[in-house]
Amino acid sequence: MNHSSASVFRIQNNHTAGIAFILSGFSEYADLQVPLFLVFLTVYTITVLGNLGMILIIRINAKLHTPMYFFLSHLSFVDFCYSTTVTPKLLENLVVEDRTISFTGCIMQFFFACIFVVAETFMLAVMAYDRFVAVCNPLLYTVAMSQKLCSLLVAASYSWSIMCSLTYTYFLLTLSFCGTKFINNFVCEHAAIVAVSCSDPYISQKIILVSATFNEISSLMIVLTSYIFIFITIMKMPSPGGRHKAFSTCASHMTAITIFHGTILFLYCIPNSKTSWLMVKVGSVFYTVVIPMLNPLIYSLRNKEVKDTVRKLINMKLLCHKI
Question: What sign results for the dihedral spanned by CA atoms 231, 233, 234, 236?
């Protein structure tokens, strides 16, 4: 163990023994606890079924064994994991009086949530590059987007997300906490955790600000550059039918990107004040609970191959039931 790791370990022992957090969540709305529980339970059920169903459909349909669906299966995996990291604790806190979460539990939730958020950010960027190659270089698509390159792009997304999360968590663990603290959110996110620390969070805040800004700008640059070239290529197509087909292949991805990055930028723009915490919670709900549900719906509702596979599975189930 190196000196810096040992220092953090000692800080942990000195400042976090017996520390716990209370996730306030939506406790101020007592009358809404049951309705919110039912809404979030429904959303989480759809999220689990939708994302795992998407992965299953892609695996069993040979026509979907293409780079685009390879990336989509990983996006579904990330969405499932992200929602599962956050939503069960949210559901628990809506039905129990004790909303306590241990220091370790809170840090672990933050750690895994960071991994999946950053992974989704770059997975969407990788999918934008995939659409760029498909539209702008269709004849070279299968060669350019080889299985090896696809695997490397996915591995790079996961590796970078883990590295970012380890960095954020490391600097978060250098902070000291004392007693039981109320976290003014339903999830252990960075701003809420540092707000209850007993030490100066300046370095931790700057690290995550710089890193998160880099991730957002770099991923958006990949997306925007890809779609500028896609738009130029589509506009040069002589056939209206060809233009419509090219647009339709990108429509689902553009919708997913707009919702995801729109929510991130909305949360970035909220001022850091007590009156803005409700907006932060609402934005966080959309970001952590709703978006993982929307992605499989967006891709399945607009995709003929996916809908055909679902129909075949339903027909097979009905046939087996009759037999």
Answer: positive
Number of structural domains in the chain: 1
> Which regions of 7-150 does DSSP assign to beta strands (E)?
20-23, 100-102
Share of the chain above pLDDT 90, in %: 50
Q: Please report, for the domain that includes residue 231, its CATH number.
A: 1.20.1070.10
Q: How far apart are CA 107 and CA 261, in angstroms?
A: 25
Q: Which residue matches tokens 């929510």?
A: 263
Going by the DSSP 8-state scheme, the letter that residue 288 receives in this structure is I
Q: Does the global pTM surpass 0.90?
A: no
Q: Give me the mean pLDDT over the 306-322 stretch.
A: 68
* Residue 64 near residue 305 (C-beta atoms within 8 A): yes
Q: Which domain holds residue 23?
A: 3-322
Q: Which residues contact 89 (CB under 8 A, 6 or more apart)?
A: 23, 101, 109, 186, 187
Count of beta carbons in the 10 Å neighbourhood of residue 274: 7
Identify the CA nearest to 183 among candidates 16, 11, 26.
26
